[in-house]
Amino acid sequence: MSSPQSSQAGHGPDHDHDHDHDDPRALRAEALEAILIERGLVDPARIDDVLDYFENQLGPLHGARLVARAWTDPEFRDELLRDGTTAMESMGLGGPQVDHLVVVENADAVHNVVVCTLCSCYPWGLLGLPPAWYKSFAYRARIVREPRAVLAEMGCAVPDDVEIRVWDSSAEVRYLVLPQRPADTDHLGADELAAVVTRDHMIGVMR
Amino acid sequence: MSAIELDVDGPAAPPRANGEVVFEHPWQSRIFATTIALCDGGTITYDEFRRRLIAEIGKHPDQYWSSWQDALEQLLVEQQVCDPDLLDDRARGFSEHPGSNPTSHRRPVARDLAPRPRT
Lengths: 207, 119
Fold this sequence. Notes:
The complex is a heterodimer of chains A (207) and B (119). Chain A has 207 residues and is α/β, with parallel strands linked by helices. Chain A folds into two domains: 23-56, no CATH class; 58-203, Nitrile hydratase alpha /Thiocyanate hydrolase gamma (Nitrile Hydratase, Chain A, Alpha-Beta Complex). Chain A is 42% helix and 11% strand. Chain A is built from ten helices and four strands; from the N terminus they run αααααββαααββαα. Chain A has a two-stranded parallel sheet. In chain A, strands 2-3 form a two-stranded parallel sheet. Chain A starts with 23 loop residues before the first helix and ends with a helix. Chain B has a domain at 35-98. Chain B contains four helices and two strands; from the N terminus they run ββαααα. Chain B has helices at residues 26-41, 46-59, 64-78, 84-96, and strands at residues 16-17, 20-21. The longest helix of chain B has 16 residues, at 26-41. Chain B is globular. Chains A and B meet through helix 1 and helix 2 of A and strand 1, strand 2, helix 1, helix 3 and helix 4 of B.
């Protein structure tokens, strides 16, 4: 998230850092929030909860934790591939729009990529908000017809000897790609591994 | 967490990166969360808010969060939840007396998020 701000400046009278109390919009936002709280229309704890959700929980972190666990725990990997929903729930994960999860695994000779050809079905609870291109007609139509070309255009060159499988997410099933563990990461723990997994890996537009 | 489904494309879609909503300043995230909390609490509906947001963004396409704030203020004024003069007075008060807002003391000036515990 980009919201946390760092501030090195002191608090002398000449401080010139970008502080909220100098910004008319920040002051108005504070004023509105204070009035709404006074009138009992919003609960400050609820605002904090919403923020925590959007800043810390909604995003690709949950999906990345699933991937990192699968990379470090072979039994969990097998379970994740066999029954993604149960494996996900065993980690306390899930959330919006992930009722039934199917995880598909990349290999040396296989690359998986996910689309929703009908609309924009997407596992929000694992990956956060979908990118704008995911819903675009061009992606939805072309990734099915010419996946290798589309992936190359998106900066993901898949070698000709690697099979590409395209999965169509729907209201019933949400797919997640389990990417291959990068080389030279044997020394990394699950938390560090999770940090290298991006949304694009788990949609399959990055290999 | 919330019944609201944010737009993922079109003018009302918030700026985002790698699946996360992107804020440039803390006030933007506060006004965003306040809006969601008001929708969840039933004070406003997301649809009503969204219509005004799209209209504001139409006027200022490069100022997403300012448009968001203006749209929320408009809606609350129209619904007589909030009086514009009161809002002006309060903002002026906070400007002249930093620290007079009791809620601002609840907010850290910076955050470095700890890694989430593994389950």
